[in-house]
Amino acid sequence: MLGLLLQITEVMYNPAGTNTGRQWIEVRNVSDSAIDLGAKDVRVNDAKGSHLIKAEEGSMVLLPGALAVIAENPDTFRADWPHYSGTLMKSAFSLTSAGSVQVARTDGTVLATANYDSSMGARNDGNSLQLSDGSFVAAVPTPGVYVKPHAQDAAQAKPSTAMAGSIKREVTNESYDPGTVAPSPSAKAEGGGALSRGPVTVAAAFQSKVIPLVSSVWFSSFLLLLAFSGFSLILLIRYA
C-alpha cells in the first residue's frame, strides 16, 4: 500500500529457540506528523485478532522519522537485547510462520502492514526479516536502528542466540560526530606519514650530508699532517 503513515521495518516472527514472548516488530514513522500509537483506536492486528498497544519505555507519540519496537513481552525483549535504549511498547500479538501483521485504527485505517512467510528466511536461526527496497530479507537483527540489508548479507547472517545482546551495539555505539567530516583513511595515512617523516628526514640528511662532510675534513687534515710530517722527516735526514 502506498501513502501509509508508518512502515513496519523489521519483523522477528520466529526467534532462535522458543518463540514464547520473544516476538517483536519495529515500526517507523514515515509521515510528516507525529503519530500517537497509544491512542485507544490504534491496534496491532494479527491472525488472531486486534491488540492494544501499551507504553513501556519512551513516548507513545512517534515523531517523524522515529522508530519504536513493539514487543510481545518487553521483559523478554530486554533480556534478549539488554543494550536497547529506544522506544519500547507492548502488544499481545502472536505471529505465525506465514501471514501478515498490521498497525491499524479500529475504523479500518491501515497505518502500516507487512506480509511475510518463512520462505523469506529468518526462521529459528537468529535472524529477523528487515525491509529493504519494499521487500523483506533475512538479516542480523538491528532493533531500533533502520538499515537496508543486502540480500547477500542475509545469506551470510547466521547469528547465535549468544550474539543477540551485542549485534545492535556494533551499529549504534560509534563515536563519530555527524556534524564533522571524518578524514579519509588515505588522508590519515598521509598525515601520519608526514608527522613521522620529520625526524627521519633530518636524521637521514644528517647521515647523508653532514657526517660525510665532517669525515672528509678530518681525513683531509690527517693527510695534510701526514704529508707535513713526512716532509719534515726528509729535511731532518738531509741536513743532519
Strand content: 25-35%
Give Rg in angstroms. 36 Å
Uncertain regions spanning at least 5 consecutive residues: 154-206
Strands, count: 13
Number of DSSP helical runs: 4
Strand order of the largest sheet: 6-9-8-2-1-12-13
Order of helices and strands: EEEEEEEEHEEEEEHHH
* Class based on secondary structure composition and strand pairing: alpha+beta
- The tally of structural domains comes to 2
The description of the largest β-sheet is: 7 strands, mixed
Shape: rod-shaped
Written description of the protein model:
- This protein has 240 residues and is α+β, with helices and mostly antiparallel strands.
- It folds into two domains: 167 residues, no CATH class; 58 residues.
- Helix content is 31%, strand content 27%.
- It has four helices and 13 strands.
- A seven-stranded mixed beta sheet has the order 6-9-8-2-1-12-13.
- Strand 8, helix 1 and strand 9 form a beta-alpha-beta unit.
- The protein is rod-shaped.
- It starts with 5 loop residues before the first strand and ends with a helix.
- About 22% of the residues have low confidence.
